[in-house]
Amino acid sequence: MSTVYVPRDAGAQSLGADEVARAIAAEAKRRALPLTLVRNGSRGHYALEPLVEVVTPAGRVAYGPVTPADVPALFEAGFLEGQAHALAHGLTEEIPWFKGQQRLTFARVGIVDPASVADYIRQGGYAGLTRALAMDGAAVVAAILESGLRGRGGAAFPTGIKWKTVHDAPGGQKYVTCNADEGDSGTFADRMLMEGDPLSLIEGMTIAGIAVGATQGYIYLRAEYPHAHRALNTAIAAAYQAGYLGADVAGSGRRFELEVRLGAGAYICGEETSMLESLEGRRGEVRVRPPLPAIKGLFGRPTIVNNVITLATVPWILAHGAKAYADYGTGKSRGTLPIQLAGNIKNGGLVERAFGLSLRELLYDYGGGSATGRPIRTVQIGGPLGAYVPASQFDVAVDYEALSAIGALLGHGGIVAFDDTVDMARMARYAMEFCALESCGKCTPCRIGSTRGVEVIDQILAGIEGERNLHLLEELCETMVQGSLCGLGGMAPFPVQSALKYFREDFRAPPKQAQ
Amino acid sequence: MRLVRTDIRPTVPCKPRDPGWTYTCCLMKTLAATQETAVKRIVAELKHRPGPLLEILHAIQDTLGCVPEAVVAPVAEGLNLSRAEVHGVITFYHHFRRAPAGAHTVSLCQAEACRSMGAVALAEHARRRLGVDFHQTTPDGRFTLEPIYCLGNCACSPAAMIDGRLHGRLTPERFDEIIAAQAKSS
Ligand SMILES: Cc1cc2nc3c(=O)[nH]c(=O)nc-3n(C[C@H](O)[C@H](O)[C@H](O)COP(=O)(O)O)c2cc1C
Ligand code: SF4
Ligand code: FES
């Protein structure tokens, strides 16, 4: 019997994957061909989605992008045996886009059946938990520390240090929380992972719980991700069913319970203390630190807060060893980074590689240049709070230190490309507008300053006192950076400042139309 | 696919007051008996969970189609919170609607990656096609147009969520096709 994979990934669905899956099932029925249809995650090469794969003795053969109209011809050409067709790309593993990647966190995404614990285990899943259960908590924490893993949610704080604080906190109730709020534009690695290999996140959280003595986990998921919500709930139910969650995790006698909680469309709830407030059922207002969440977090108890990618990387580290992970990467940026190529880019998607690749390689070797075919003028890295990087700096290495040396930041690893038609004053205005819309309201520079920022840019664009207003805008940015409690108000000026620095020519009133 | 229980949607006639603006019934201060029962049942079911308020508000919105002002009192009472606290939470989150949406909800992504691929022009087109601005519902009650900030589909920009279905690489032509198909389906 043939096995065919058609992604259920939200991005693939947005390009018609469900219709393709239905067409394949219908055509197989019409031809009375027995067929197993697996709905997997996406491999992350969205130019080829919907990417249909067929299992052959040599490995999986890829066809894409497939439309329902292509399906009869694919059957005619013998795609179930991996035969040639205009949409065929040969073995998926050999497609250049995938071949050079170093997929550790994403090793199973697009490959495994996300709903099946048995398939997960066949593909190496739960090896990390098995190791962790044979170690004491302190040894697990030491392994994470040794791996050099830093938080992938944005702040890049060493994960092992955070875990150690929670581990060393006096006993009683502790929590493991996963930040799945992924609000940054240009990022979708969390979504892909939760839809494509949710069990690796579940395993990572279970390991964290067992390491620090927490018996309850929460995944705080943004409401904008209904597909991930379904995938997580299905996988959590399967893990309970198989005895990998609950009162007796994998027969160890240790308890770990897990549930998904939905956010409600507030960007600020990605900030960890705001997320905790929201999990407690309150307004997502940022808390003043100290105390750190690791000491007084959810319901006042010691709490791990980690990003999806951070937690989903933990099983690999336990299974393969801390040193094996640290062998990837450069300097203080150890391991691999799932990078997301987004926006005006020909081959958008997910590239996981060891730290140290240049921005240019990512944009041109993987990305293939802009989608519109025009020159790429700038990229924004790290979401709405990240700086714009001009084309003259595309040789920078994509790691924490190299980017911060040029005044940029990596954040959650999303790279958004813009071609030369972009109006940077408009983008700066949008950055201020977004900050005003999403401010939690606690600090005046963030709440009022961002609204003022929009007005000042509007005046500049209307040709009112250009120089004076540009100066005012710069001062306003400085005030927000200095006077904000958290990264929203404190970093929203970065895109504005970088736009002013590199693209000042855009901050001018359009020339008056000749009468 | 909206998770709205049609059997207990507002029983008061939903007459749009001004063309292009939202329904008014849920801005009323009272709930119909069936709605009140539903709200009380939700509160009773979920109140013992840790940090239950957001869960309760989600359940109310999934059932009634919105979180009207009139639920503040029963929710506050059930959780032993002040009305101001409950009100403060509802208004903090963009996701909770104060009034029901139209039959179809069209959320267009307006964040950076989608902007780089023409999301602003697409929104302009959508406004013209539907004849309403963001946060408004068409006078016939069929479509509500909303901005949304990233759907995680930034490699296939511009993106939109229409009735829970994600769309990528949208063009004005494709947008019109989808709207025409939705209009036919309702
Ligand atoms: C405004 C703001 C938004 C944030 N949004 C997210 C987010 O969506 N997801 C995330 O994992 N971290 C986000 N962070 C970072 C979190 O505060 C926190 O550092 C992170 O969740 C910790 O996990 P990590 O150490 O695994 O990265 C945000 C921070 C700020 C200031
Ligand atoms: S900077 Fe803005 S979002 Fe952050 S705490 Fe202050 S007001 Fe809230
Ligand atoms: S920015 Fe539009 S989907 Fe992410």
Written description of the protein model:
The complex is a heterodimer of chains A (515) and B (186). Chain A has 515 residues and is an alpha/beta fold. Chain A has helices spanning 10-14, 17-30, 71-77, 96-99, 117-122, 127-133, 137-147, 159-168, 189-196, 198-212, 226-241, 272-279, 308-320, 322-326, 359-366, 400-405, 424-438, 444-461, 466-483, 487-491, 493-502; strands at residues 2-5, 35-38, 52-56, 59-63, 88-91, 175-180, 216-221, 257-262, 303-307, 329-330, 333-334, 336-343, 349-354, 376-381, 388-390, 414-419. Chain A has four domains: 2-99, Glutaredoxin (3-Layer(aba) Sandwich); 117-326, Rossmann fold (3-Layer(aba) Sandwich), CATH 3.40.50; 329-419, Ubiquitin-like (UB roll); 424-507, de novo design (two linked rop proteins) (Up-down Bundle). Chain A is built from 21 helices and 16 strands. In chain A, the strands form four sheets. A five-stranded mixed β-sheet of chain A has the order 2-1-3-4-5, with helices on one face. Chain A has a five-stranded mixed β-sheet with strand order 13-12-16-14-15. Chain A has a four-stranded parallel β-sheet with strand order 8-7-6-9, sandwiched between helices. Chain B has 186 residues and is of the alpha+beta class. Chain B folds into three domains: 1-30, no CATH class; 33-92; 104-185, Glutaredoxin, CATH 3.40.30.10. Helices cover 40% and strands 11% of the residues of chain B. Chain B contains seven helices and five strands. Chain B has helices spanning 33-46, 53-64, 72-79, 83-92, 112-115, 119-130, 172-185, and strands at 104-109, 136-137, 143-148, 160-162, 165-167. In chain B, a hairpin with a 2-residue loop joins strand 4 (160-162) and strand 5. Chain B is elongated. Mean pLDDT of chain B is 87; it is low at 1-26. Classes of the chains: A alpha/beta (515), B alpha+beta (186). The complex binds flavin mononucleotide (FMN), iron/sulfur cluster and FE2/S2 (inorganic) cluster. Residues 268, 286, 439-443, 446-447, 484-486, 488-490 of chain A line the site of iron/sulfur cluster (SF4). FE2/S2 (inorganic) cluster is lined by residues 109, 111-114, 150-154, 157, 159 of chain B.
